[in-house]
Task: inverse folding
């Protein structure tokens, strides 16, 4: 069964600090990997999309990395802000006609002043 | 503004009382999905639709129904809700299947928090 596991489950950081979230997957065959940000009480919003051939993708202070050989991805948040407090979800797409998605359970990030 | 809307946003009901959660998108997307989100489990697909009058079961379809009579609307129906259907529900739309295409993404609605007593 295709699985996506994220760690840690939650973390608390001080404003201005950096943090890194992890995503390990067993999805095969792999098409692409996305990171979504979900603010409390709202739907997920796409942050980055990476294909097999990409190993880094940035969106402002968010940088995602991908190692397709080890099936690992990370999301790095630089100089965190209070608005970064949210859940971050890793989503992997299967390379097939229906692009089936596998969702991670998410990492909840709390940024404190 | 491109968006997916859901109504109601919050709903408290009792076991067995039929309810419908509406979903509408204004992006002319062919693909629409319903998900439920429970703590520690992530998003799980309930039903999906590839176009008008074309729907199919996702991973957790038991106890739910859907219909797609118009391209923009995709209501979720709970004929006889039970407490284990208490959850946060999201509707999503995309131009490629589930937004899984490389240049595409899913657009999610704001969510509907359902409590079944």
Result:
């Amino acid at each position: 069964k295709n699985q996506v596991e994220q760690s840690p489950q939650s973390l608390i950081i001080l404003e201005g600090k950096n943090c890194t979230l992890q995503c390990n997957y067993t999805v095969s065959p792999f098409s692409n990997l996305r990171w979504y940000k979900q603010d409390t009480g709202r739907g997920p919003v796409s942050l980055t999309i990476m294909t097999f051939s990409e190993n880094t993708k940035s969106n402002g202070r968010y940088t995602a990395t991908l190692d397709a050989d080890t099936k690992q991805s990370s999301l790095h948040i630089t100089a965190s802000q209070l608005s970064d407090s949210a859940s971050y979800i890793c989503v992997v797409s299967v390379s097939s006609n229906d692009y089936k998605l596998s969702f991670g359970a998410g990492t909840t990030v709390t940024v404190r002043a | 503004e491109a968006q997916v809307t859901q109504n109601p946003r919050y709903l408290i009901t009792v076991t067995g009382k039929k309810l419908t959660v509406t979903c509408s998108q204004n992006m002319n997307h062919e693909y629409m999905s319903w998900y439920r989100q429970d703590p520690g489990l992530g998003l799980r697909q309930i039903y999906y639709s590839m176009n008008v009058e074309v729907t199919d079961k996702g991973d957790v379809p038991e106890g739910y129904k859907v219909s797609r009579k118009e391209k923009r609307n995709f209501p979720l129906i709970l004929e006889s809700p039970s407490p284990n259907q208490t959850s946060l529900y999201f509707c999503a739309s995309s131009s490629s299947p589930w937004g899984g295409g490389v240049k595409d993404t899913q657009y999610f609605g704001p969510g509907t928090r359902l409590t079944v007593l």
In short: Chain B has a mean pLDDT of 92. The radius of gyration of chain B is 13 Å.
